[in-house]
Structures are given as C-alpha cells and as structure tokens.
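[job 4471] stage=fold_predict status=RUNNING
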Amino acid sequence: MEGMSYLAIAYFGMLVAIALWTYTVVQRSRRLSQRIEALEGAITGRFESE
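[job 4471] inference complete, writing structure tokens
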C-alpha cells in the first residue's frame, strides 16, 4: 500500500500544480485585457481631442 500512497500524493500534487498554472494564465489574460482596453481608451481619447 506504500506505493499507492505515493501515487495518490503525486496525483494530488499534479492537480494542484495544474490548478495554480490555470489560475496564473487566467490572471495574466485578465491583466492583458485591461491593458488593451486602457490603450484603446487612450488612443480613442487622443484622436477625439484633436
């Protein structure tokens, strides 16, 4: 049963690692989206004032 415990711990660790990676990718995507929106707003604001 010792080998099965290591396998279960490794599987759980892999699930945690995938969850953390997914969270990181989602956060980066949200930040990038916000930066693009801010850039679009700055460009639109610049052209409207001219």
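[job 4471] summary: The chain has a mean pLDDT of 90.
[job 4471] exit 0
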